[in-house]
Amino acid sequence: MAFELQAIRTVTKNFGDRISNQEFGARTPEGMIQRAVWTFPFNRLPAPGASNHEQVIPAGSSIIRAIFRVITPFTSTSTATDLDIGLQTKAAVEIDDNGLLTAAQLTQTVIAVDGRLTVGTGALVNNTIGALPGELVVTPTTDDLTAGVGQVIVEYFTPAALPA
User: Fold this and answer.
1) Are 57 and 14 members of one domain?
2) Separation of alpha carbons 163 and 160, rounded Å
3) Which of 22, 46, 52, 147 is the most buried (most CB within 10 A)?
4) 23: burial class by Cβ within 10 Å (0-12, 13-18, 19+)?
5) Residue 124 and residue 24: Cα distance in Å, rounded?
6) pLDDT, one tens digit for every residue, the chain (164 residues)
7) Strand locations in the chain, DSSP E?
């Protein structure tokens, strides 16, 4: 970006796109904030390392926000099936199994409401995931889900994200 300062009136003229070091405010450079989305049915809950196709959140990333969306209401054979959502390594080593959304947030009552959005308040939200890359893990407190489709959206800063 180039700009010209007119000394007479102290007016700045901007030429071209206003992408800078953000000292003066600017558009966020592409790639600074990433978004990962997982959509899954009740019988194929995300788990780390099942294949080499899993979305990975890089080591050192900082989680900005985690959202759970009910696409099709979840049902189960009991009255105590809640969901924990967090991150593990590819080798299924826990980073934090409920670090994005907790069972207290995703109770059976909550996950049974069509279109419901729940914003996560787990320990990884507004924090770094640490020194290991993470893959999503969704764990029911009771393994008896019979229907439902959910979506998890995670927004995060990549490690040491700096303005362009």
Assistant:
1) no
2) 10
3) 46
4) exposed
5) 31
6) 454 556 666 665 655 555 555 555 555 566 678 999 999 999 999 999 867 788 999 999 999 999 999 999 999 999 889 999 999 999 999 999 999 999 999 999 999 999 999 999 999 999 999 999 999 999 999 999 999 999 999 999 988 655 54
7) 2-6, 11-15, 33-41, 62-76, 83-88, 94-101, 117-119, 127-128, 135-140, 145-157
Task: Mark whether 70 and 129 lie in a shared domain.
Answer: yes
Residue type, 96: D
Listed in sequence order, the residues at least 6 apart from 156 whose beta carbon sits closer than 8 Å to its beta carbon are 33, 34, 35, 36, 57, 61, 62, 63, 64, 129
- pTM greater than 0.90: no
